[in-house]
């Protein structure tokens, strides 16, 4: 590093101030990039959530039915303050899980209904 004399001080200070200005610009640009990335990530997470009306529409039920299902613990949900939110992935997984139950129950119901209306053979 070069030794600075008293006569070199104004130029040295000017150079330091210029470097500080450049560093400030870089820090500001990095900060803005980080903020944009954080907002993009936050928006992506919010896009993955349904509100009560959206999940009701998706499931083709009323909003009151959704509240009842939440109250009974029959549907996965998140609570953010006073607002209910529903993860799209969790709702899809929940539906897939329940679809097997509905199909099995429906087949059993069909068998039971058929048994009631079956005519005895040989009469």
Q: Which structural class should the secondary elements be placed in?
A: mainly alpha
Unreliable spans are none
Give the CATH architecture of the largest domain: Orthogonal Bundle
CATH top level assignment of the largest domain: Mainly Alpha
Q: Provide the residue-averaged pLDDT.
A: 81
Shape: rod-shaped
As a percent range, the share of strand residues is: 5-15%
Terminal residue distance: 113 Å
Walk me through what this model shows.
This protein has about 120 residues and is mainly α. About 70% of the residues lie in helices and about 10% in strands. It has 4 helices and 3 strands, in the order αβααββα. Strands 1-3-2 form a 3-stranded antiparallel sheet. Strand 2 (about 80) and strand 3 (about 85) form a beta hairpin. The model has no long low-confidence stretch (mean pLDDT about 80).
Task: Give a quick set of tags describing it.
123 residues, mainly alpha, Arc Repressor Mutant, subunit A, 2 domains, three-stranded antiparallel sheet, 4 helices, 3 strands, 70% helix
């Amino acid at each position: 590093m070069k030794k600075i004399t008293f006569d070199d001080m104004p130029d040295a200070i000017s150079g330091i101030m210029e470097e500080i200005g450049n560093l400030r610009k870089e820090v500001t640009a990095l900060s803005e990039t980080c903020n944009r990335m954080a907002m993009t990530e936050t928006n992506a997470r919010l896009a993955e959530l349904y509100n009560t009306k959206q999940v009701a529409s998706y499931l083709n039920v009323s909003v009151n039915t959704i509240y009842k299902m939440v109250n009974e613990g029959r549907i996965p949900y998140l609570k953010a303050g006073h607002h209910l939110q529903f993860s799209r992935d969790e709702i899809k997984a929940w539906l897939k899980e329940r679809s097997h139950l509905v199909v099995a129950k429906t087949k059993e119901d069909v068998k039971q209904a058929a048994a009631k209306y079956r005519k005895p053979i040989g009469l």
